[in-house]
Amino acid sequence: MGQSKIEVRRMSMRRSPVAVVALALVGFLLGSLAGCKHDDVRCSGQDVQDSGTTVVSGQSGQAPASPFCQRTPQVRDAITRAACPKCSCESITPDHLKLVRELSLAGTGLTALRSGDLSGLTSLEKLELTGTRLEVLPESLPAELSALKRLRLELSLLSRLPESVIQPLLDRPGFVWEVTSPARTCDRYEPKAEKAPGLSTSALEAALQLAPTHGELDVRAWKARMGVYLVGVPNDSEQLELFAVSVDADKQPSLLAKAEQPIRLPEGYDHAFDLAPYRITGTEVGFGLRLSHEEPVPNNQTASEEELQVFRIHGNKIERVLKTVVYRKYIRHGPPTVLVNEEGVDPGDWQWEDRFCSVIAVTGSKTNGVFNWVKVSSAQSTKPDTARDASAEVLPSVVFRWTGARYEARNDEKESYFFRED
Fold first, then answer.
1. Contact partners, residue 244, CB within 8 Å, separation at least 6
2. What is the CB neighbour count within 10 angstroms for residue 209?
3. Are residue 141 and residue 226 in the same domain, yes or no?
4. Range of the structural domain that residue 212 is part of
5. Same domain, yes or no, for 318 and 206?
6. pTM (2 decimals)?
7. pLDDT value of position 68
8. pLDDT at res. 153
9. 238 lies in some domain
10. Greatest distance between any 2 Cα atoms in the chain
């Protein structure tokens, strides 16, 4: 009797061939209904999960975790949306990853990228990282994203990236940095108000051997080098002479360095020292000088422009290492083209502004032992034109590299009404 019960139980666990075929057919239909596809890549029925279980070789159990599913959740989910929106992470295959050309991690709150998070994205050309809380990028990023042509990130992140991440991308032909600046407005540079340094004008005139006809002295304490003061002196030839002086314990100045070539400063042009720490090497810092001018220009508009020149003290000489336009504002008059024929439009009623603003950021990478600099730019417009978004637009960044005597860039904008190459 006991033997008979054992045989009955064994028979009840067997499945007929018809039942096996039926189960296989149901699995295939469920996979087809999932409809997970991306271009020519389709998720198979066996990849689709139901309540966390799958059927493999006729046995039921928990599916092993997919390596792709183990990636940082925000990254995994963003890739899944880009590769196969209707798929689960378990369904993503290497073929899906190869199809992704653009990936946005903006606004995800991502705090860290792990090595391997972006692996397999061999066709990715554009990566968006703004709106995250990233403080660094993995050193594997350039190698993992071999096709990357455009990287959009925030200035605070760029300034913290190590050379191992920046340099391979800088060396990649045609690579474009899109860097957003934290500045909320696009305005001209405003120097910080500082107390007068308290140096004797007569003592400075004697130390610098100034002509009696010099203009008003502009003296600033240079905090990057204690005890050093920068002096700008307009002369009667529409030029600005630059000096650096050191001061002893009795506040007596002595000449430290002088610019060999005065700065061109035509009548009506303004100037201001920019004492931000422009790091050149680990031990050397430069200082800036801003020149600005505004006046009417052709084509019924008014132009306002600002140029940044950066200098270093090298021995007893002040040498210019960078010259670039960092601010342009054009006040334009007349109706936008798309509205010219609109009824009731008076050309005299239309006026809008186009602004272009830039800041210089020091990166962690170097050329010939000197830090590379990046010019981060954005554009704003108040043009009442429905064909153009009036909000800020991030422009491709310009990378300045050290050439041995100065910084130069291949793609720096040279267009300017008031500032020319010299």
1. 222, 228, 229, 230, 231, 255, 256, 257, 258, 313, 318
2. 9
3. no
4. 201-408
5. yes
6. 0.76
7. 94
8. 92
9. yes
10. 128
Which neighbouring-strand residues pair with 152?
128, 178
Give the separation between CA 98 and CA 90, rounded to whole angstroms.
16
Write down which residue in 180, 210, 239 finishes a domain.
Answer: 180
Whether 187 maps to a domain, the answer reads no
Stated length of the chain: 422
Q: Say whether both 97 and 240 belong to one domain.
A: no
3-class SS of residue 213: coil
Q: Give domain status of residue 48, yes or no.
A: no
Kindly provide the residue ranges of all beta strands, DSSP E only, lying in 90-214, ordered along the sequence: 102-104, 126-128, 150-154, 176-180
In this structure, the answer to whether residues 121 and 224 fall within a common structural domain is no
Between CA 211 and CA 233 the distance in angstroms is 10
Question: What would the two tokens of residue 167 be?
Answer: 């340099």
CB 239 within 8 A of CB 215: no
**pLDDT score recorded for residue 162:** 86
Q: Please tell me the distance from the alpha carbon of residue 161 to that of residue 177, in angstroms, as a whole number.
A: 13
* Sequence-ordered list of residues with C-beta below 8 angstroms from that of 143, at least 6 positions apart, any chain: 168
Q: Note whether residue 20 is domain-resident.
A: no
What is the number of domains present in the chain? 2
d(Cα 105, Cα 118) in Å, to the nearest integer?
11
Which residue in this structure is represented by tokens 């430290």?
256
- Residues 141, 223, single domain; the answer is no
Same domain, 395 and 326: yes
Tell me phi and psi for residue 28, to 5 degrees. Answer: -65, -45
Q: Which residues of the chain have pLDDT under 50?
A: 1-15, 18, 20-21, 23-26, 28-61, 386-390
